[in-house]
Amino acid sequence: MSLAIETTNLTRRFGTLTAVAGLNLSVRSGEIFGFLGPNGAGKTTTIRMLCGLLLPSEGTARVAGLDVRRDAEAIKRRVGYMSQRFSLYGDLTAEENLDFFAGVYRLSGPERRGRVSQTLERVGLADRRRELTEHLSGGLKQRLALGCALVHSPSILFLDEPTAGADPPSRQRIWDLLYEAAAEGRTILVTTHYVEEAERCQTIGFMHRGRFIGLGSPEQCKAEMGEAILEVDALPVMQAAAVARRLDGVTGVSIYGHTLRVFAKTTTHLRHHLQEALVAQGVAVKSIRAVAPTLEDVFMSLTRGAQDDNGRG
Questions:
Q1: Which helix (H) or strand (E) holds 190?
Q2: How many CA atoms does the CB half-sphere of 123 hold within 13 Å?
Q3: Which residues contact residue 247 at a Cβ distance below 8 angstroms, ignoring those fewer than 6 apart?
Q4: Strand pairing class (259-264; 228-235)
């Protein structure tokens, strides 16, 4: 399968800050690729370089076969970009915003009018086409922003936190639209810090401080996680967490309600030692069992490992 996006040692510095460091990325045509990471991880900077909006400090990148340094203007016409910050005009109607962006992408005449009308139907705003954008809900604004990125039928979509500010039904509708776009052959690169949204992507790149710390399908990332997990149902939970953190071999502890997820390189003998330590400290233990990792567990494990590596460096 051909590559829609390819980077080699892609790097961007802002003064002494390295926002993206030596990123090597390959995204197949027609793939939904997700960047998962906290704010400040380098996701937005990467997208802006790939869209031709920001020049790399080092390295190379090709988007739709075009070089981001030499062909930035051509790239802008071939991709759709939905920025993290809402960038539409509140004093224009939904239809006027779409018409404006269609013009930016050099559509004109009957084709322009047809694309605007089709896109309004597609994102479910045909009956609100004459409503001022500032009066739309957060979810409808996000759907309109996605429509503006789609109106010129780009081959590649770059979406930076596309569901930010959207309610759950709107988030689902946005993802339905993304799947429809992918089914039409479009390549989609989406950033998110919602782990449950990353599960919807075919491939995930975990980003931390401008670098990939993990890469693969959701299933692959879970299968290759380098730690085992014990789920502990115990009360009081904060005391249980403190006890678990002190045990040899425990690499991390996460609290979810009244349960803990205890991470370790191996849990072969840990379950017994943990049970004894908790009971000795007066903690009531209902159950301790080995569980399969979730994608959030994978992210926590990878981030912890990256921080340890930075500390040793």
A1: strand 187-192
A2: 27
A3: 270, 273, 274, 277
A4: antiparallel
Q: Does the bond joining 169 to the residue before it have cis omega, within 30 degrees of 0?
A: no
Contact 25, 10 (CB under 8 A): yes
Low-confidence ranges of the chain (pLDDT < 50): 311-313
Alpha-carbon torsion (96, 101, 103, 108), positive or negative? negative
Asked if residue 260 lies in contact with residue 241, where contact means CB atoms within 8 angstroms, the answer is yes
> What secondary structure does DSSP assign to 54-98, as a single string?
S--SEEEEEETTEETTT-HHHHHHHEEEE-SS--S-TTSBHHHHH
The pLDDT tens digits for 219-262 are 999 999 989 999 999 999 999 999 999 999 999 999 988 899 99
What ranges in the chain are assigned the alpha helix state H?
A: 43-50, 72-78, 94-104, 109-122, 138-150, 168-183, 195-198, 218-223, 237-246, 270-280, 295-312
DSSP category for residue 182: H
Place of tokens 């503006």: 148
- pTM for this one? 0.89
Q: How many CB atoms lie within 10 A of CB 234?
A: 23
Cβ atoms within 10 A of the Cβ of 210, count?
A: 23
Residue 262, token pair as written in the block: 């205890």
